[in-house]
Amino acid sequence: MNNKIILILSVFLFITSVQAQESGIESLRETGKAFSSVARTVSPSVVYIRSEGIVTEQEIPDFHFPFGEGVPFNDDFLKRFFGDQFQHPQIPRSETPESKRRAVSQGSGFIYKTKDGLFSDKSYILTNNHVVAGADKIHVQLKDGREFVAEIVGTDPQSEVAVLMIKAGGLPALALGNSSSLEVGEWVIAIGSPFGLSHSLTVGVVSAKGRTSLGISDYEDFIQTDAAINPGNSGGPLVNLDGEVVGINTAIMSRSGGYMGVGFAIPIDLAKGIAHQLMDSGKVTRGYLGIVIQELTPELASSFDLDRNQGILIAQVTKDTPAAEAGLKQGDVIITYQGKPVTKVGDFRNRVSLSSPGSREQLTIIRDGKRRNISVTIGTLSKDEMAAEASTQSTDELGLTVQTITPQLAEQFNAKAGEGVVVTQVRPDSIAASAGIESGSIIVQVNRIPIANAEDFKREVKKSSAKKRILLLIKKNNMQQFVALSW
Q1: CA separation for the pair 174, 47 (Å, rounded)
Q2: The total number of structural domains that make up the chain
Q3: Residue 422: strand pairing partners
Q4: Integer Cα distance of 393 and 120 in angstroms
Q5: pTM, to two decimals
């Protein structure tokens, strides 16, 4: 009897195992069919972009780019993907004559809007700025082999978004999704032309959202994905399982020079706002408050008597700006903007930049432990202010953030534009804080070398990283002193 029971149980377990295996295989088949369906829907709208332009460079004998003739206009593109190992050898300018040549850049894009009419058949293409920057001729190729010469409608280097136009009607435009509703772990699909291999599809998941401070662009809020992104994928769409665009593939992070599972895409919610402005006027107008902000760490939250790490901290308010006129002050903690919670510096900065100049916006702040609602009229970000925002640099080694001195900052801090940088943030647990460096200090020299802007400062700090020590000349209240730091 027992043998019969064992036999029946064995048969039952075997049948169950076979059914489970078949069910698993069927599930994989269905997943594969979903990917195939997306590919059929999306691929006709994805384009291969080849850009040409004249570049001036130093003649470097016997040096070849790693990708042969299909090279970008400058080293920035290669360094964006592979780091410093793919930059030109540093040969003194006086020893190498200048030459001009035609350079070719490859990338991807996708049709996102069309205008059809008797004399106005046009299709608009979204891509990355670095794919077409400096180009005087741009070729766009569709999946069916048709090729068009594209015109640049507008570019925005600060966000890495560009819009092209081709004179062709009846082309399918991709539906734009909602990147804010994406969840970590959700399936996403990247389609583009890695290394010139057009309409290649890779699959992965959303690894993270809201990635900032990567140094890829000035306005960052990247989607991180492990879907394979390589040179040539730039500008191509990142789509969900419904075939809706949720991002524009832009860069990878790699130590080896190859794909390592960390790719970044511009969220479509950010990109489409930029694209609409480029289509309407050929340029982007950004909102402006006039404050320097920093993340609110648990230590800072405790210092400001906050129960938990919430909001972002105002480190500086510039005089005669919308923020100053609205009554915002240094030390205020912003917890909501436009009625939505504020938790990250990058997200807040992007939201302000996309606010219409002249619009009246609401902020909720915490000041001296009490909540206050403040209404502010958004200003227009000027070229000087944009340069200042773009010229902010932070260093993990020292634990401070500095900003290029603009005419407005020069007046506020009794300094001179082009002579040093102003310290805007100091991390409480850093060696800079231990040395007594405070916000508002002016750093005029690094290792006895005068610095003119934030880029100079970061370059000199980088030179000191191997020795792990640095000498700063700091000006505070019209007094100068040397400060030596080591780590």
Answers
A1: 12
A2: 4
A3: 403, 442
A4: 46
A5: 0.71
